[in-house]
């Protein structure tokens, strides 16, 4: 069984990944040059993916599968007993 510290750290990395994706929507409105914005968006995308997959490794396959199923828009209208 994985330790609780690694499990919580994995979820922290997944949350940081989501924040990096949200940052992409904010960057265009910041008072920086276009070049800096382009580098910032690219870096945010890369960091978001890295943090997500490291977090996924730490929390485990079952949790990630359930998370991905939950985040799929097709499943949002399904009732609990249909899943």
TrEMBL record:
Bilayer-spanning residue ranges? 12-32, 38-59
- Keywords from the named record: Membrane, Transmembrane, Transmembrane helix
Q: Which InterPro entries match?
A: Transp_suffix-like
Q: Which NCBIfam families match?
A: suffix_2_RND
User: What name does the UniProt record give this protein?
Assistant: Transporter suffix domain-containing protein
Q: What organism is the protein native to?
A: Peribacillus saganii
Q: What are the leading ranks of the lineage?
A: Bacteria, Bacillati, Bacillota, Bacilli, Bacillales
């Amino acid at each position: 069984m994985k330790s609780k510290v690694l499990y919580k750290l994995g979820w922290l990395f997944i949350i940081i990944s989501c924040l990096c994706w949200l940052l992409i929507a904010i960057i265009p409105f910041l008072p920086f040059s276009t070049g800096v914005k382009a580098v910032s968006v690219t870096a945010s995308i890369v960091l978001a993916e890295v943090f997500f997959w490291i977090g996924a490794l730490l929390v485990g396959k079952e949790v990630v599968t359930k998370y991905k199923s939950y985040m799929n828009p097709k499943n949002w209208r399904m009732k609990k007993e249909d899943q």
